Amino acid sequence: QVQLVESGGGLVQTGGSLRLSCVSSGLRYSHYTMAWFRQAPGKEREFVASWSSSSTNYADSVKGRFTISGDYTIYTVSLEMNSLKPEDTAVYYCAAHSPYDPTARDVHGFQYWGKGTLVTVSS
């Protein structure tokens, strides 16, 4: 059984930083692309960043501010978020896509999801 568990969300002021982590069980990272998505109130879930052993990809809105990284040995994918803005406020979800596809960004292509962690950026 695949499980993805996010942590690290919270309340931060504009310009601040947070680090999200996603610990997974039941899947082999080499067969998946791992990603972070977010969903703001009243909006659709959107791609933030993805990670695989060969590449990383970012949404334009977070490029240069967020960094995704992964560690196969501890089955963890992290999202370092810097220079946070109020528009970054959302529930952030960890997701896994199979088969391995470093270009995957479509929310419908990801088979496994965590329950999310809330990030609130105050102005």
Task: Please name the defining characteristics of this protein.
123 residues; four-stranded antiparallel sheet; 11 strands
Protein architecture, described:
- The chain is mainly β and 123 residues long.
- Helices cover 0% and strands 50% of the residues.
- The chain has no helices and eleven strands.
- Strands 2, 4, 5, 6, 9, 10 and 11 form a seven-stranded mixed sheet that branches. The chain has a four-stranded antiparallel sheet with strand order 1-3-8-7, with no helix packed on it.
- It is globular and about 40 Å long.
Précis, in short:
This protein has 123 residues and is an all-beta fold. It is 0% helix and 50% strand.
Distance between the termini: 40 Å
Helical proportion, percent range? under 10%
SS field, number of helical segments: 0
Point out poorly predicted stretches.
none
Mean pLDDT: 94
Broad shape? globular
- According to DSSP, the number of beta strands is 11
Largest sheet descriptor: 7 strands, mixed
Could you tell me the radius of gyration in angstroms? 13 Å
**Order of secondary-structure elements:** EEEEEEEEEEE
Supply the helix-strand structural class.
mainly beta
Strand content: over 45%
